[in-house]
Amino acid sequence: MKKVYTCFCTDVIHEGHLNIINNGLKYGEVTVGILSDSAIICYNRFPTVTMEERIEMVKKIPGVSNVIVQNDVMYDNIIAELKPDYVIHGDNWKNGPEAAIRDNVIKNLEAYGGQLIEVGYTYNDKIRRIDAQITEKLAMPEFRRRRLRQLLKICPIVKTCEVHSGLTGLIVEKTVVQSDNGLMQFDAMWISSLCDSTDKGKPDIELVDMSSRLRTIDDVLDVTTKPVILDGDTGGLIEHFVYNVRTLERIGVSAVIIEDKTGLKKNSLFGTEVLQTQDSIEHFCEKIRAGKEAQRTDDFMIIARIESLILEQGMEDAINRARAYVKAGADGIMIHSRQKTPDEIFRFCDIFRTEDKTTPIVVVPTSFNSVTEKELAAHGINIVIYANQLMRSAFPAMQKTAEAILKNHRTMEIEDTLMPFKDIIRLIDEI
Ligand code: SPV
Ligand code: MG
Question: What is the pTM assigned to this prediction?
Answer without folding.
Answer: 0.96
